[in-house]
Amino acid sequence: MLKFCRDNSVKTIIFYDLSRLARSVEEGLEELKRLVDEGFNFYFAGMDFLNYDIDAMLKKKIIMDFLWFAEPYVEDIKKRTRTAMERLRREGKLIHRPQLLHYVALLLSGKDNFNELTKSDIDKAIEHLKNYISEKLMEGKGLREVHEVFKKDFALLYKKFAKAPRGFQSFYRMIHYLRGYLHLSL
Predict the structure, then answer these.
(1) In this predicted model, what pLDDT tens digit does every residue of 95-139 receive, in sequence order?
(2) Which residues sit opposite 12 in a β-bridge?
(3) Disulfide-capable partner of 98 in 37, 52, 102, 106 (CB 3.0 to 4.6 Å)?
(4) Closest to 63 (Cα-Cα) out of 82, 42, 79
(5) How far is it, in rounded angstroms, from Cα 62 to Cα 31?
(6) What residue numbers bound the domain in which 149 lies?
């Protein structure tokens, strides 16, 4: 960011708050010193009181106190996020952008929302796809041909879920994920 500001003659940098500047007191103080030394102005949008014209020593003290609390705050957020992600994984909830497999699971389960999907729904979709793809490959079809047949056979999926990925790359990723179930070498 500083390189961009230097290269484009930007002299004012706006941070949301101090925790976005640095993750520790030492880093924060070093960054602020560097910004001041290089002639940058900086403002904190989420902490408007830091932008007031107050005594320089008082401002430094406030900034140092906030940076000191930023470190444990960030660690606490990381811990809570990790805990929540682990809970969602255990519950079989989707915690990333849905892939083709998840759309198939929605279609087969009759559900309309990814948040409703369970691990069991995904396991059933895997079993269904394993049988479907194995059958198509046993017929001597190549992967691209299986993809074209898949798009026709699963036309309802694309009609019901317009955002479902249609490209070969998405199909290939699904096959790649399923390869252990299909005993394929890709």
Answers:
(1) 778 999 999 999 999 998 888 888 899 999 999 999 999 899 889
(2) 41
(3) 102
(4) 42
(5) 16
(6) 100-182
Do both 75 and 32 map to the same domain? Answer: yes
Task: Based on the fold, state whether residues 72 and 26 are members of the same structural domain.
Answer: yes
- The tens digit of pLDDT for each residue in 70-98 reads 778 778 888 999 999 888 878 767 677 89
Looking at the fold, whether 10 and 84 belong to one and the same domain comes out as: yes
Counting Cβ atoms within 10 Å, is residue 167 exposed (0-12), middle (13-18) or buried (19+)? Answer: exposed
Distances (CA, A) of 70 to 2, 80, 115: 21, 15, 33
Phi, psi of 184 (to 5 degrees): -105, 155
Q: 171, 150 in Cβ contact below 8 A?
A: yes
Length of the chain: 186
Task: Give the Cα separation of 37 and 59 in Å (integer).
Answer: 17
Structure tokens at 158: 């694309």
Q: What residues pair up with 21 in beta bridges, in sequence order?
A: none
Q: 3-class DSSP state for residue 160?
A: helix
Burial of 51 (0-12, 13-18, 19+ CB in 10 A): middle
* Whole-number CA gyration radius for the chain: 26
Q: Which residues pair with 42 in a beta bridge?
A: 13
